[in-house]
Design brief:
By secondary structure, the protein is an alpha+beta fold. The protein folds into two domains: 7-51; 70-145, 2-Layer Sandwich (Alpha-Beta Plaits), CATH 3.30.70.3460. It contains five helices and four strands, in the order αααβαββαβ. A four-stranded antiparallel sheet has the order 2-3-1-4. Pfam families: AsnC_trans_reg2, NirdL-like_HTH. This is siroheme decarboxylase.
């Protein structure tokens, strides 16, 4: 069942969906813009998160500016019986930001578990691949390297 956002919730989400104010008191600043108290902003965001109306609320860091200049999407061949166990194991790794299971219907593409690996060098990314092969039953894989970033934005839910 979808959540029907109140006008107050929409007002706060319009403000925070882009960037929090660059301030020592960002929630107070959001509250001032939304016309409610800082406590109400915090409570509202917590309620939306706990109810599942919003999936996450956190910082988005431009990883390239922090030295994490390399990445690789690695697709892994995994049996249906091992998806959950292997998925949990790879998700624990510090260098992995995303792990997804996507069933494949293509005869020539046996890979169904996808991991996004980030590193400070290509060698570091490949080392993570080696770690995963050592620590799990995952062996067969395909490394998909980004050639060019074509689009990367945060979604705007309320204009």
């Amino acid at each position: 069942m979808s959540h029907q956002f109140s006008p107050e919730e929409q007002a706060v989400l319009r403000i925070v969906q882009n960037n929090l104010p660059d301030s020592l008191t960002p929630y107070a600043d959001v509250a001032e813009q939304a016309g409610i108290s800082e406590a109400q902003v915090i409570d509202l965001l917590c309620r939306l998160k706990e109810s599942g109306a919003i999936r996450r609320f956190g910082a988005s860091i431009k990883h390239q500016k922090t030295g994490w200049t390399h990445n690789a999407m690695v697709a892994w061949k995994v049996s249906p019986e091992q998806v959950d166990q292997c998925g949990r194991k790879v998700a624990e790794h510090d260098h992995i930001s995303h792990a997804y299971y996507r069933p494949s219907s293509a005869v020539d593409w046996p890979y169904e578990l996808y991991t996004m690996i980030h590193g400070r060098s290509e060698a570091e990314c490949l080392s993570v691949v080696d770690d995963i092969m050592r620590d799990t039953d995952l062996k067969e894989h395909a490394i998909l390297r980004s050639l060019k970033e074509l689009k990367k934005i945060s979604m705007t839910y309320f204009a």
